[in-house]
Amino acid sequence: MRNIFRAAALSALLSATASQAAPAPDDLAWQITEGLTTEIGARPAGSEREARARDWAVARLTALGFRNVRVEPFTVTGFVRGAETAELTAPYPHKLHITALGYSVPTPKGGLKAELVYFPTLDALKAAPEGSLKGKVAFIDHAFVASQDGAGYGPYGAVRRQGPAIAASKGAAAAVIRSVGTDHNRDPHTGVASFTDPAKAIPAGAVSIPDALLIARIAKTGKPMMIDLVLEGRPQANMPSGNVIAELPGRDPTLPPVMLACHLDSWDLGTGAIDDAAGCGIITAAALRTQRQGQPLRTIRVLWAGSEEIGVFGGAAYGKAHAAEPHALVMESDFGADRVWRVKFNLSMANQPLRNRIAAGLALMGIVPAADKANGGADTGAIIAAQKPGVIDLDQDGTRYFDLHHTPDDTLDKVDPVQLEQNVAAWTVVLKEVANEAGPIKPAE
Fold first, then answer.
1. Averaged pLDDT, 106-125
2. Residue 160 contacts by C-beta under 8 Å, 6 or more apart in sequence?
């Protein structure tokens, strides 16, 4: 019965959306970002909200004139948030702002009261003797700071991804980390903690950066710290998810397509504006703008991937489903909505003229080429491994991205419409060239 109601609702949504005039290309990226964050809001992987977002995407892309619009379903082990509180009870009482990390398991009924042991770095935790944290809570600090390219997220993000599992291996009853972010708001950042053996998972949470600084100051006194921790979130198996795929057919259907990716899901604390509704707005608007300049030679395919946040399940599902299907070139937008400042290429020497044309067009916008090779994004990784297509990365300014990433502050008001439009313009410069390239497009050897 629930599915019947959903089908009826989707039919009504398709009819209503199709009856509206398609927005002007200049407004489309904003309208998609606004629509997803306002009409749907937070879109946790596997949730009813993510399902509603897929219905919304199908209706929207169909109304915009995309063809072959469909959902490719899969299931995931998701994460369902529960009650979450933390209080430092000794040596000084302080309430802490905390959020559970994805795949945390619940604390015991009534919470967990234990000694809090401070580690200034992940390496310090790794060096702790086996069994030294039995019955204790590990606190893991780090020193992530803002940068234009967001390079620190890789090494410092390991505190969140690996830290809880390492703490568990030392006997810890739970782990708390300094949020992997660069802001100084009292908002914690969520994200996934990776447990290779789910049976050995422990409760894991992140406190806001001001609270982490407080803990670090108290740790310097040498006085024992005690924490009262409640984290009731839990993993949940067999949750429905899926990828939304749509195409703008090219003049020559025998040529491999150009694929553009974003992800449709988001964390639940905010409304997923910069991560990643804006990315879906950017790639969709650029695809349509390119088509409106004249039907391109190659088909342009858009992938609005599901369940990226909890493990890139949508990208993996796409890679598996389309592993035998040639792709000419792939790109992804998943780093917010601030201006594009740099371009990276992974193209063969035979594609040097194509690279030069793209670089020249982007140079007029102040976008500079990098010496580093493009490597794509999370949701394109599986198809890149399977098909070895060309790759181009348009790098956005990430200076403020990790102020907002995975927090309650990831909301529409943080998106600058002028910078969002600059993204669409840059993507259109690239798409106009690659979608009309008649010869083979290959990566560097």
1. 98
2. 101, 177, 180, 191, 192, 193, 206
